Every structure is written in C-alpha cells, then in structure tokens.
Amino acid sequence: MKNKYTLRLLTTVAGLVSGLANLYSQTDSTNSLEGMSLKDLLNIKIVSVSKTSETLFEAPLSASVVTKEDIQRAGCTSIMEALRLVPGMIVREQTNGNYEVQLRGAYTTPDAFFDGSTGTTLVMVNNRPIFNYLKGSTFWESIPVDLNDVEKIEVVRGPAGALYGPNAVNGVINIITRQAANDGLYAVANSSQGSYHTNINNASLGYRGDKWSIMASGNYQHRERTQTSYYEFWRNAWLDNAPYLVSELGDTMQNAKLLVPYPVMSVEKYAGNFFANYNPSEKVSFNLSSGLQHSLVQKVYAENGYGPLTTSISNSRYVDLRATAGRFSGQVSFIDGTQVADHQPGNKYDFNTFDASIEYNYSKGNFSLKPGLSYRSAVYDDTKYSDMINKLGIFNAKGKITTQSASLRSEYKLLNKKLRLVAGVATNTFNYPDKTYLSYEFATTYKLNKKHLVRAVYSRTPRSASVYDAYVDQSVPGLIPIGLQKYVQLRLEGNKNIQLFTVDMLEAGYRGHIAEGLSLDVEVFNMRSKNYSSNVLHAPRVNIQGADTILTIPIMPTNLPAVGNQTGITAALTYTFKKWQIKPYVTLQQSNLQHFAPYTTMPDAPPTFVQMNPQQNNIYSGMGSETDMKNTPAVFGGMTVNYAVDPKLNVNLNAYYMSQQTIYHSTWFLFNDGVRGVDNIKGKCIVNANISYKLMDRLQINANFKNVLNNTNREFFKTDEVPFMFLGGIHFQL
C-alpha cells in the first residue's frame, strides 16, 4: 500500500501510548454509571434538538443520547456500530467494519442504484456537516474522528431542516467530541486486536489550563473481509479468484484485478485531529479543530457496473472554528480532498465544501427567539481525471451546489412552564434548482407533572440536489434501441431543474418515569415523502456532428410520480436496579409507495431490448397503485443488559435485531427474470458480549465477543457474511 510507512508509524505511536494507553477508555471509568439514578439518566444533556443545552426529558423532539460510557461498556468498535445502541436506527454491516446506516429508512425506490449510506440523515461532528454531494450521502470512513474522540452521540429523529438546513430529512446524527475533564495533562488510548486481522488503535494526548485546553488524537484501523468471493450481477454468482468480471449488461469484460485490486481488504484508515479551546470569559469562547484522514474501504457505494462492492479511497483535510460572544454564535468550516469511487477503476474527483453560519440568541422571561443565516458551497471536479472527449469519467464536469438559508426559531413557555411551544422556519435557496424551499418545524410539549411529558411535532425538510444529478455528462454503452443500431448515442445528462426530495412528518410522543427505576419513551410517527428521482430514458433528439447525423437518446435524473408513506412506532424502556441497567427498544413500521411503477422510461422513449413498449410501461404506469417497501425492515431494535459485578468487573450483553427484508437493485428491472437483482435478507439477531476488568486504577482489559450466535447471514444486498469474531483489548488513561 502507498501509505504503509505512515500507517506503521501511526500504529507504533498508538501502541506506545497504549503502553500507557487505551481509549474507549474514557474520562469516566466503566462503572461510572453504576450508581446513577433513573432521574440522572433522564436529565442527560442534549444540544442537538434546539442548539441549546437542555435535558433529554424536556426535549421537544424524538431524540436519544449514547454516551462514551454506553459505547465503552458495549464494546463497540466504531461510531457506526455504536449507532446500533440507538432506537430507530437501521445499521446493516456490509463488510467487516463497514455499515449501511439509515434512520428509519425508506428513502429510495425499489429499483434504485445503491448510491451511499445515510442519504437522508445529516451527520455532523460538533455541528459541522459531514455530507458527500456527489450523490448525496455520507462516507463514514472519511470521518476523521473515532471513538476515542467521542464524548457522546446525539440522534434526533425526524426532519430537522428548520435548525440544520437541507439534508436533515430523516433526522440528525451529531457526534460531540470530548474535552479534557480536569486541569493538567490528559492521555488516553486503546488497542484492540481480533479475528480477520482486525487491528484498532486510538490515542489522545492533551492539556487543560485555566481558560484553555488543547488536545491531539490519532487513530488507525485495519480490517480484512470475512470472505474473498465477489458477487457478479451478470452471472448471478459468487466468484472467487475470477480472472475477469462481466458487466451487468453482458457487453464488457474487465480484468478482475483492476476492478478489485485489494480483494482481502475491508478497511484500512488512519486519521489525526487537533482540538483547541479558549474561554476568556463566561460569555466568550473559541473552539478550533482541524485534521486529516486517509481511508480505503470495500463496501456498497457507487457501483462499478459489475457487482455491488466497490473500492473507495478518500483523502481529506478539514478546519472548523466555532465561536460564541454574548448572544452571537457562529461557525465556519472548510474541507477539501480527493476521492476515488464509482464505475471504472481510477476514476477520481476533487472536492471542497465551505460552510458558514451565524445565529443570534435572544431571550426574555419565557420567550426566546433565534434568527440565523447560513451559506454552503460544495464544489466537485473530476475533469482532471476524466477522458473529457469520450466522457468516460464519473460526471465529467466541475459542478457546484450552493445553498443560502435564513432561519428563525421561536419558543414560548406558559402555564407555569408546563406548556412549551416551539416554531421554526427556514428558507433554503439553491442554485440548482433555482428556487427556494421551505423547512419548518412546529412542536409542543406538555408536562403532566415532573415525571410525565407528552409531545407533538409537525415538520418538513428537503434534501439538496447532488452534483451528479445536476452535472452528469456521460457516454453510456449498450442498451441500443431496437432498429436503431447505427449512429445512436446514449447519454447520461444532468437535470438542473429536478425537484428536491422532501419529507413531511407528523409525530406524537411520551416520556415518563412510570415506576421506580423504570422509564418509557414512545413515539408514533407518520412520514410522507415526495419527489423521488431516478435516471430515466427520454425521447431521442437529432444532433449534427460534422457530416454525421447522430440520434442522441438522453438518460437523465427525473422526478417520479411516486409518493412514499411510512407509519410506525418506536418504544424504548430503561430499567435501573442497583448494579443492573437494562435498555430494550424496538421500532415497528410499515412503508409503502403510491403511484410507483418499476419502469425507467418516459412514454415517448424509443423501444429497447430492456423495455419493448415504453408507451405502455413507463414511469406513469403505476398511477393509482400501492407498493409495499420491503427493502426496509418492518421490525428492528435491540437491547443492552449491563451488570457491574463489582468496581473492577463489568459484563455487558447487547443484541440487535432486524426482520426479513427484500432488497431490490436496479438490475431487477434490467434482467426482469425474477431472480437477478433481488436479495431476500433473512431476519437476524446479533448478540454481542463484552467483559471488562480493571487490573489497576487506570489500566483495563476487555474480551469482546461479536455475534456469539454465529448467525452468518449477510445483512445487505449480496455483501459479505458476518460470522463470529473475537477481539481482545487493553485500555489505559492517564
């Protein structure tokens, strides 16, 4: 590998601090919550619901907090895996350490390409958006912080665009990084080794003074796949050491070593971060963070046309500044880098994203008002790496997506602060499409008494356009229309006027302390989504190129008439008794599409070998119909059971369950044989166990058993099996 010496150096450094060291080791010990009362647990602070610190009990939206103690005791090995501890999250492992993450799910139609993870959930680090504008998703492996940097993870379920702008369509995942808790030197590290050459190292070193603190952290991770075979669309087979792979159209063969240059590798990544905080007075603060990362993963993201797994390489750097001065708060961040993904090997693009926001916080008595302005610019450019003559790159353009937002959030408390009214609205003006979309949120809570609270919310948020949708300009091989074999050109073309995917949600909930040591959180929701889009074959047009007359048939992103409907309920219990803590949670939901047709042609498109009669079978053929969305589990959830045996020994069992799913891929419609392009994923329960023991005050070891039932069923479309794994770790904090 190109960066093997850098990786070895980082591993050595992490190992040395590990001689001191281990993270997941936290500022607080494993047993720090042993004596915490239920009241304390309900009063855990959250900032992501309203951008103001408040107790989780009083938050007006459906929300959850996973603390560093929760993560450590469960033995989670990544931020993605830790999200399995959160109610309402769908987390499916694709290859060792790589996950597809969705909040409630049901964000795409059954005939879509797999274009990424968390496409409708905004992921942030300290309020800094982590969003990939190529096709609109999150590259989780490119997030530079790791578990040793995490203080807590806050999750807000439901549209939150009135606070965070577009892309917070299904909710927000906000990763809050830690700071040194005490004055003086701070050091913490973790080293875990396990099955399938899994090697995870983290280290942090910092110092806290009177009004300032600094911290540097590094992380390195290496994981190998649990199998070496690959699934190929065309032959509908798992191939091991195949000399070549056939494209899904059956018209191209490619050297397998070019498509899958690292057949054993699942994850190899390293990153470094620097954090500095300065608080000259009670009302003034400055927080600066910066870092860089390199990652190489094999996962389902932007397909290469041969099989679902794609090699993705990312290199990026970021800087982020947050400041507060009196009633004003602001944040400016910049990230740039290069990524390799999508289609043929070697395709690259450069990118940079700039974010700036400012807010004013006004409050008087029971009334508060928070106006804000924000600007975001995302530039993606693959022209340096593409064949611009034959248009064989990813999107063959330098594309820019901009968003200007103005927001206003108000809050009023009355009836002796029992009733809380919240209203927020934001205007989001895009360059493509050139129009303004509204985000809004109307919420209310009512305290029945100190132990019981009911809440309701209605909200709407759009998702921004992607660079690919707006700018793609690409030659498409194959699929030549019948009778038009000569002088015909198929082209993928961008659509700058596409309407943006938007979700409306109506939700009601309850939080309460229902008995001694027992709390309940329930939410009932209905989400309506519109403006789904897909690449659709359009009517041909005639172009003149020199002496030739070329019939060009465009394939472009087009809005579908489909409307999504998702109704469900999420319930979470927390029970604490002496040394025990038990947290079961479950989501039951039903998802369907109205007016959906499994055809990607316009009525005036020409007949092709795939679709013989587009006048009859087109995107409008499903008007009046209703289709169940089987690619989202109807039941999912989990449970953690923690037992603090004594101050030194802790035992944690955690389980995660997903019901059966039927995942469709675009080749389902392409082949139309009822076999290819469909994967029936069996229901699965994953049970993990983590046992930790404190050898001395600051040194801890743990034994981590993953999938102890050895349920090897894959969890996503034609991805790797997930067998039993064991990891051993050592943790130290200075």
Write the layout of secondary structure elements.
Elements: H1 4-20, H2 38-42, E1 45-46, E2 54-55, E3 63-67, H3 68-74, H4 79-82, E4 89-95, E5 98-103, E6 121-125, E7 128-130, E8 150-157, H5 161-164, E9 171-177, E10 184-194, E11 198-208, E12 212-224, E13 230-232, E14 237-239, E15 244-246, E16 253-255, H6 256-259, E17 265-281, E18 284-300, E19 309-325, E20 328-340, E21 348-360, E22 362-364, E23 367-381, E24 398-414, E25 419-430, E26 436-449, E27 452-462, H7 467-471, E28 473-476, E29 488-493, E30 502-515, E31 518-530, E32 533-537, E33 541-545, E34 548-559, E35 563-577, E36 580-594, E37 626-628, E38 635-644, E39 649-658, E40 661-664, H8 667-671, E41 678-681, E42 684-696, E43 699-706, E44 725-733
What does this 3D model show about the protein?
It is globular and about 80 Å long. It has eight helices and 44 strands. The chain has a single domain, classed as TonB-dependent receptor, beta-barrel domain (Maltoporin, Chain A). The chain has a 22-stranded antiparallel barrel. A five-stranded mixed β-sheet has the order 3-8-9-6-7. Strand 33 and strand 34 form a beta hairpin. With 734 residues, the chain is mainly β.
CATH architecture: Beta Barrel
Q: What Rg, in angstroms, do the CA atoms define? A: 26 Å
Largest sheet: 22 strands, antiparallel, barrel
**What best-fitting shape do the alpha-carbon axes yield?**
globular
Provide the structure class.
mainly beta
> Kindly state the mean pLDDT as a whole number?
88
Low-confidence stretches: 1-35
The CATH topology is given as Maltoporin, Chain A
**Into which percentage range does the β-strand content fall?**
over 45%
Report how far the terminal alpha carbons are from each other. Answer: 34 Å
Q: Give the CATH superfamily.
A: TonB-dependent receptor, beta-barrel domain
